[in-house]
Design a protein that fits this description.
- The complex is a heterodimer of chains A (412) and B (82).
- Chain A has 412 residues and is an alpha/beta fold.
- Chain A is built from 14 helices and 16 strands.
- In chain A, helix 4 packs across helix 7, helix 8 crosses helix 14 and helix 11 packs across helix 12.
- Chain A starts with 10 loop residues before the first strand and ends with a strand.
- The model of chain A has no long low-confidence stretch (mean pLDDT 96).
- Chain B is mainly α and 82 residues long.
- In chain B, helix 1 packs across helix 3.
- The mean pLDDT of chain B is 92.
- Classes of the chains: A alpha/beta (412), B mainly alpha (82).
- Chains A and B meet through helix 3 of A and helix 2 of B.
């Protein structure tokens, strides 16, 4: 089935907020991603584990960024999300003290939730007994709390949702926000994703399933999407948040429209718990749906911010689908070479980076691409960022369970 | 100020990252941005660190540091072996 009727109106992106391993804030993140250097490093929290490298947000002080109370009572994924959301709202020129909060929605993609809190408190219970378990355990760990805290912080009283489609969660959140705006449920939606899953148990779990890179001696070279020698992803953490509005509303208040979300497609592979469908049928459907909804032909796509995890299976399957549907035209990059894989936040971080790509006419390079996999028959941007006018970009996100989300982002 | 008052202040500073300068005898937990859930957490820590069991409904965010320190002192005395 394909969408019918005229394309729906695009939605304006008026604010961008980013907290990633490449930097705190959209500007720092953008510079870090364009520099194409991975900040992956050994992590003391993971010492002694089979995989002990990760991409964490450098210099993030919870107390400095979200205050004392939140530094104690919120898990890190919520802290990162609040920080990114505040930046996005300020960037949009909106003031939560004066807006009509009931018309403001919040949608946050999150795959894991407060897993570090869970692990810490579980250990305390085993070592010291139930009396040592924090009263804050549940509100810290449940995955809806990033969205809840953002709503409290911003006085956003409209629909408050969490999307959990694994590593597509952040993109699914933005797609859901698009729908909330198009159907009139909200006038403003603060949407994105957040994750802080760099914990011993989570990293071990991903390592046990063979998803993580074992290039431990040179951590900065471990995440290498589309490279012939890729061997898995590097786990990361972060948050990306956007402010979305109907374009007419944004123009009426003279806001700067940074880009547009023009289309969204979602699908399921219905194939395997973790492996992508090798034929990419589900991804293909999501891509087609997103392009049709945006009234854009495959030939018009200038750029793809690929899911590009750096795992052998994902990159091969994704490359096959992109080549089949879009041909040789688009310049493709995977920003996970720098940020690592931020799981439930990835789709939102990458959508935000795609907005910056469109806005700056600059495509960041894929870090560590030294020898392109000959089976990846795509124009992968590597080395230096590439200057190119990007009118139409696609941001791909795929999650375990075969859940796919594709966003079409166009120039304003 | 009592010894228990000092211990409670130290706990708030060390475990709850409250600035010592913010705390005075008449400061309430609300003044420190500590709501009912935070107070439950504080009482759990008091139980763990001081060995004194203060029930959830015995203290409220509107209480002052002095009032809660006195309450802990009274309960500690009552629970002490004869």
């Amino acid at each position: 089935m394909t969408p019918s009727g005229p394309p729906s109106r695009p939605i304006a992106v008026t604010g961008v907020g980013l907290v990633t391993p490449a930097g705190i804030g959209a500007d720092d993140t953008w510079k870090g991603v364009c520099a194409g250097r991975s900040p992956a490093a050994r992590n003391p929290v993971l010492a002694g584990l089979p995989v002990d490298i990760s991409c964490t947000v450098p210099g993030f002080s919870a107390r400095e960024h979200v205050g004392r109370r939140s530094s104690l009572a919120h898990d890190r994924f919520s802290q990162l999300c609040i920080t990114a959301a505040r930046e996005a709202v300020a960037d949009a020129g909106l003031d939560p003290r004066t807006w009509d909060g009931v018309r403001v929605g919040v949608v946050v993609g999150c795959g894991l939730g407060g897993v570090a809190t869970w692990e810490t408190q579980h250990r305390r219970m085993l070592e010291k007994g139930p009396a040592a378990v924090s009263a804050l355990l549940i509100p810290m760990l449940v995955p809806n709390m990033a969205a809840g805290h953002v709503a409290m912080d911003l006085r956003a009283k409209g629909p408050n949702l969490v999307t959990a489609t694994a590593c597509a969660s952040g993109a699914t959140a933005i797609g859901t926000a698009l729908q909330l705006l198009r159907d009139g449920s909200c006038d403003v939606v603060v949407a994105g994703g957040a994750e802080a899953g760099v914990s011993p148990l989570m990293v071990t779990g991903f390592a046990q399933m063979g998803a993580l890179s074992r290039r431990l001696d040179v951590p900065s070279a471990a995440s290498r999407p589309f490279d012939a020698d890729r061997d898995g992803f590097v786990i990361g953490e972060g948050s990306g948040m956007l402010v979305l509005e109907r374009e007419a509303d944004a123009r009426a208040r003279r806001a700067k429209v940074r880009a547009r979300i023009a289309g969204y497609g979602a699908s399921a592979d219905a194939y395997h718990m973790t492996a992508p469908d090798p034929e990419g049928a589900g991804v293909l459907r999501a891509l087609r749906t997103a392009l049709l909804g945006a009234d854009i032909t495959p030939q018009e796509v200038d750029h793809v911010n690929a899911h590009g995890t750096s795992t052998p299976l994902n990159d091969a399957a994704e490359a096959k689908v992109l080549r089949r549907l879009l041909g040789e035209g688009p310049a493709v990059t995977s920003t996970k070479g720098v940020t690592g894989h931020t799981l439930g936040a990835a789709g939102a971080i990458e959508a935000a980076l795609t907005v910056l790509t469109v806005e700056n006419s600059l495509i960041p390079p894929t870090a560590n691409l030294e020898r392109q996999d000959p089976e990846v028959e795509l124009d992968i941007v590597a080395g230096l960022p590439r200057e190119r006018r990007v009118e139409v970009a696609v941001s791909n996100s795929f999650g375990f369970g075969g859940q796919n989300a594709v966003l079409v982002i166009t120039a304003a | 100020m009592s010894v228990m008052y000092g211990r409670l202040v130290d706990l708030l500073v060390d475990r709850f990252e409250v600035d010592r300068a913010e705390i005075g005898p008449d400061t309430t937990f609300e003044d420190l941005d500590m709501d009912s859930l935070f107070l439950v957490e504080l009482l759990l820590v008091i139980h763990s660190d001081f060995g004194v069991n203060v029930s959830d409904d015995a203290a409220s965010p509107g209480d002052t540091i002095t009032e809660v320190a006195d309450l802990i002192e009274r309960l500690a005395t009552a629970e002490a072996p004869a």
